[in-house]
Amino acid sequence: VAPTTPVCEVPSSAMTGTVVELSCKETEGSPPSEYQWYKNGVALLEKTGTGSARAANITYTMNKKSGTLLFNTVTKNDTGEYFCEASNGVGLSQKCSVKRMQV
């Protein structure tokens, strides 16, 4: 079963230095969807090891299975427009509407 449009939860504003979690979920897809987050239209990298992530100055953890994007300490650099995409290899992938987070 192809995924439906996921529901994204993105805070409209966040305080610098706080923990912020963005979530994305859809329940129709079978097999279960994997989720990819985008910021300003660019796919976010999944944090795989410490080396590459640190080099890219990644301050978040993205879980493709649960659809969460977790910032341990948000910075002004994390301000932007976020959306997520659900895909499970069946039918077209589905995106939620873009939401702006201001830090």
Tell me what you see in this structure.
- This protein has one helix at residues 50-55, and strands at 7-9, 20-25, 34-39, 42-43, 60-63, 68-71, 80-87, 94-95, 99-101.
- With 103 residues, the protein is mainly beta.
- It has one domain (7-101): Immunoglobulin-like (Sandwich), CATH 2.60.40.10.
- Strand 7 and strand 8 (94-95) form a beta hairpin.
- 22% of the residues are buried.
- The mean pLDDT is 91.
The percentage of residues in β strands lies in 35-45%
> On the 0-100 scale, what is the average pLDDT?
91
Largest sheet: 5 strands, antiparallel
The level of helicity is under 10%
DSSP summary, beta strand count:
9
What's the structural blueprint in terms of helices and strands?
Blueprint: E1 7-9, E2 20-25, E3 34-39, E4 42-43, H1 50-55, E5 60-63, E6 68-71, E7 80-87, E8 94-95, E9 99-101
Question: In brief, what are we looking at here?
Answer:
The chain is mainly β and 103 residues long. Helices cover 6% and strands 37% of the residues.
Descriptive labels:
single chain; 103 residues; mainly beta; Immunoglobulin-like; five-stranded antiparallel β-sheet; four-stranded antiparallel β-sheet; 1 helix; 9 strands; 6% helix; elongated; Ig-like_dom_sf; transmembrane helix
